[in-house]
Amino acid sequence: MLELTKLSKIYDDQSAVTDVSLRIEPGEFVTMLGPSGCGKTTLLRMLAGLVQPSSGSIVLEGRDITLLPPYKRDLNMVFQQYALFPHLTVEDNILFGLRMKKVPAEEQRKRLLQVVELTRLTGLERRKPHQLSGGQQQRVAVARAIVNRPKVLLLDEPLAALDLQLRKNLQHELKQLQKRLGITFIYVTHDQEEAMTLSDRIVVMNGGVCEQVGAPRDIYAHPASLFVASFIGENNTLQEQGRTYAVRPDKVKLVPLRDKPHPEGHRTGMIEDMADTGSLLKLYVRPDGGGPNLLVYRYGDEVQGWRTGQKVAYGWASRDEVVLAR
Length: 326
Ligand SMILES: Nc1ncnc2c1ncn2[C@@H]1O[C@H](COP(=O)(O)OP(=O)(O)O)[C@@H](O)[C@H]1O
Ligand SMILES: [Mg+2]
Hints:
This protein is an alpha+beta fold. The chain has 2 domains: 226 residues, 3-Layer(aba) Sandwich (Rossmann fold), CATH 3.40.50.300; 70 residues, CATH 2.40.50.140. Helices cover 26% and strands 33% of the residues. A 6-stranded mixed beta sheet has the order 6-7-8-3-9-10, with helices on both faces. A hairpin with a 6-residue loop joins strand 15 and strand 16. Helix 2 packs parallel to helix 4. The two termini are 32 Å apart. The structure holds adenosine-5'-diphosphate (ADP) and magnesium ion. The site of magnesium ion (MG) has 2 residues, from helix 1. It comes from Paenibacillus allorhizosphaerae. Keywords: ATP-binding, Nucleotide-binding, Transport.
């Protein structure tokens, strides 16, 4: 449905985005994930028509839109800052675009009712933005975008300014909304947990380059690079005999040193530190053989009985070693 081919943006002599190629299916929820400065916003703004690509192309449903102005694209953007008009009511904010496009008044009413209900803003239509909570303002921003019935909705860190609990609620709402509307969502975040929760597919970006594309579970289980292995969830990365590989903290088997039998390929070390997060215990094991500390997770009944300073034997099954290319 949407095809990006070798899309690049160079500012002055600095590359912000380099050769990103991607095919997005109708109704898909795709997330661009990466640290601050990796080019996510630039990529999204190129799709919106707000930044002109230095090279490459964007094709929407068979039509080359690379050079089209923003208002001629069937794409709408929701920004990190809600950018609502402060002097307009919720209703007027939502209808602003339709009025500009001179959509008939009856059609405006109909669509307003629909999106107000979808975004759970019923009863708040006459309020001004400053009379709304952060979460409500963000819903208005989403309502304002979907009222235009775009084929694709572009969302640039729309929840970044909200506190954790509200962010989790709105994540769930956005996902439900996307499924109901069937609109393609292209979402940007630096938060890997948010990306894992929301997405059909994740595009992991680093330094303007696309490092890996895949379903959340795939990317988690089979990171293609050292960057992806350490950016998506917590991981142990090991370099041994010219080989680089990763082992997830929940795959590490751990026993007190005196216990027998020891785990497969066992090594020894000492628990240097522990962190109890409630649902899981994180143990930091200093290997006797030197090298970085190893992170180990224990859940459920297995969180009991560990103490710092304790000597342990540990290991993992060779099938849980994920070999990394770089
Ligand atoms: N208008 C601009 N002029 C020059 N450099 C820019 C401009 N916009 C972004 N950049 C640079 O491009 C890189 C990517 O920025 P951005 O796309 O905003 O990253 P992200 O959204 O992932 O944080 C950064 O190094 C940033 O400084
Ligand atoms: Mg950004």
